[in-house]
Backbone:
């Protein structure tokens, strides 16, 4: 996990090497010699109705955008016919953090879709640029998600991180939370889109077939899901996390590389396979969509909780 000093409230990164520590049994508590207990540091969590505003920086097709908007819809999908395991069930695990803090899990819904197809800030971005882009979304009751296309370079992308979540207090309305995730398909799919691409390091197991047929976007789904879980449970750097504040492990990043039972380094775990497409997944979502979502640390048990 990389920590970068910026003029922000805080900034948390997802390491590229999210498959490197996946080797503990899913049903066994996390080794206390390796990880500390997931602690609540008494800070504010996100609650109430929260809009997820997507800022699409660079070229994305309508079908690519639909993958991520369907992910948000699936968190609280009213469609009772959605098969288990579901995205909604995965999100309920995040609710365990709210039970620990005697608060209520927020209701996340799709908000604004802001297209920045012409790349107004260029194609080589700094963290300050990401914050500027995030500020294009609403600062109130929102998480603003900046998504950069495959031809856009971001400081630290592929070298030390696949995405970040942060908070800013630079608006008249006060602080707001935001996320950045890049499409790694042409820059580092073996780092930021694993297990849908051969890893650069570690055991060279065959890649899985991406559930939505798009290695870059399905990789972004994993990282957006990780960062959403971290954002709501540790929005301002004083919520739930393990270890030092300078390099915290959060709800999903505390279980790197784990997607199903039996996971170990280089192996994502035992996963269902779609009989038609051959794609691996662990969650059903809205509109018949399938996703691969990261395991979440259950704060009540100190275990990595998977859907399958």
Residues:
């Amino acid at each position: 996990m990389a920590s970068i000093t910026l003029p922000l409230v805080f900034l948390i990164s997802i390491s590229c090497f999210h498959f490197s520590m996946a080797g503990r049994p899913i049903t066994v508590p996390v080794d206390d010699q390796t990880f500390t207990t997931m602690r609540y540091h008494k800070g504010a969590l996100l609650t109430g109705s929260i809009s997820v505003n997507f800022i699409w920086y660079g070229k994305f097709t309508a079908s690519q955008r639909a993958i991520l908007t369907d992910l948000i819809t699936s968190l609280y999908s009213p469609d009772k016919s959605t098969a288990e395991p579901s995205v909604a069930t995965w999100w309920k695990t995040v609710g365990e953090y709210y039970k620990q803090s005697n608060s209520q899990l927020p209701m996340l819904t799709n908000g604004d879709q802001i297209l920045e197809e012409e790349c107004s800030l260029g194609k080589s971005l700094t963290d300050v640029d990401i914050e500027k882009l995030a500020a294009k979304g609403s600062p109130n009751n929102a998480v603003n998600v900046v998504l950069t296309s495959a031809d856009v370079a971001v400081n630290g992308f592929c070298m030390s991180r696949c995405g970040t979540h942060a908070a800013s207090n630079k608006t008249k309305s006060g602080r707001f939370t935001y996320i950045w995730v890049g499409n790694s398909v042409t820059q580092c799919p073996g780092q930021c889109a694993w297990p849908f691409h051969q890893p650069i390091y570690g055991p060279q197991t065959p890649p899985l077939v991406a559930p939505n047929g798009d290695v870059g976007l399905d990789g972004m789904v994993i990282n957006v899901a990780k960062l959403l879980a971290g954002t709501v449970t540790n929005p301002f750097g004083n919520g739930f996390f393990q270890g030092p504040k300078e390099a915290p492990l959060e709800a999903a990043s505390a279980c790197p590389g784990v997607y199903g039972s039996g996971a170990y380094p280089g192996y994502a775990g035992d996963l269902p396979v779609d009989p038609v497409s051959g794609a691996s997944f662990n969650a059903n979502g809205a509109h018949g969509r399938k996703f691969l979502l990261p395991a979440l640390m259950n704060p009540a048990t100190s275990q990595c909780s998977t859907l399958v």
